């Protein structure tokens, strides 16, 4: 028999130590994530131990020894576990420490009826669940801030833009209410993904289950799942819950970047519609006058980053077999964990930006009065009061706008005579329009107030939208709190049962 130093540290099937390059480039990078998964691995070990003891698959004295060892390892923390790339990954390094603390025989018995494959799949779901719940909390907080500001600014009239050209008057509150609805859908997608991952893979083994009479429902309950993944192969082969979450956060960050793009433009001196405090800005190393919107630029750029992570993850998965493999179950998840960190950062920056964006009401209203965004209201008046078809009215008002531009007049200086002149030239009809009526329909405040159709920007409509969304937010918060409480209750029960087992003599 060869000397131990010439053999693999984890298998007698392998008669040579792992190559330096494999350790350096494959196993060592995996171990950098050891601390992030340490608590979940401890919980998985505890749940499996309690199940083995409950089904009589492990003697009571050995179970108590293992329980005490797991509690000690948890108490000492991840830093107390020596990490050796020659042991391949987190599980083998954890097991080596367990065998030191509990003894080789007891420590080696915990792995009965399971595999690293179902352990890793379970760890991924536990960790992803917590990450999503934290992100949902941040988005709910952001949504609440946005809705409160939407109600506050339901009367703050501003230009609405399409193609970055003045379109029709809206209010800043109307704009924020739209953002809140988009965040609501982001949360809905994430909550659906939580439902998708709510099944425990533990007990699936490598891919074909086990011949031991285990109780998968017990381990699922200890770990806060409502049930287990019914097919053992699917349990270790699939990470589609992660792709659903990654897709959701990619969609979300792309949307947040679009919001940032609006604010980025509106905060320029040329627009002057929004201002930000210095605390969310940067400056220049050479130009002393600069106040740079660094937070907005961060949000604008992250959508591309997330899209790249999603694409890379799915590309790594494509062509893999429907089973466990390093590329299918590990390489594909690297981008996912990075994406969850980035999504949380983005959500926190978005919350900061939207909480501190300060609309400039006078500038907003003045811009809306001068920039022809009320032209549609003038066309609507011709349809309503002069009996024109909308297309005919569109041509007449277009001619009025053209004349105003040629004369360098703002929209608020258009008068009834200009409208009558254009109507005569383009329709051959003589109009007798009330001067006050023309001025009123060109007033953006009046125009916004008149848009009372469902979904419109009239202040009363916006406030009603906000009330409905706040009610929806309350429902979402209750659902998230219920799920978080259920997870916490399961974990508390797991720890209490482990401590009781450890105290047994």
From TrEMBL:
Give, as one word, the top-level EC class.
Answer: lyase
Subcellular compartments = Cytoplasm
UniProt EC number:
4.3.2.1
**Domain Argininosuccinate lyase C-terminal stretches:** 372-446
Gene name as annotated: argH
| Domain Fumarate lyase N-terminal: start-end pairs | 57-308
Identify the domain of life.
Answer: Bacteria
**A cellular component annotation (GO) from this entry:** cytosol
Q: What is this protein called?
A: Argininosuccinate lyase
UniProt-listed InterPro entries: Arg_succ_lyase_C, Argininosuccinate_lyase, Fumarase/histidase_N, Fumarate_lyase_fam, Fumarate_lyase_N, L-Aspartase-like
Q: Which reaction does it catalyse?
A: 2-(N(omega)-L-arginino)succinate = fumarate + L-arginine
Sorted UniProt keywords? Amino-acid biosynthesis, Arginine biosynthesis, Cytoplasm, Lyase
Q: To which species is this protein native?
A: Cupriavidus plantarum
Family to which this protein belongs: Belongs to the lyase 1 family. Argininosuccinate lyase subfamily.
The uppermost taxa in this organism's lineage are: Bacteria, Pseudomonadati, Pseudomonadota, Betaproteobacteria, Burkholderiales
Name the pathway. Answer: Amino-acid biosynthesis; L-arginine biosynthesis; L-arginine from L-ornithine and carbamoyl phosphate: step 3/3
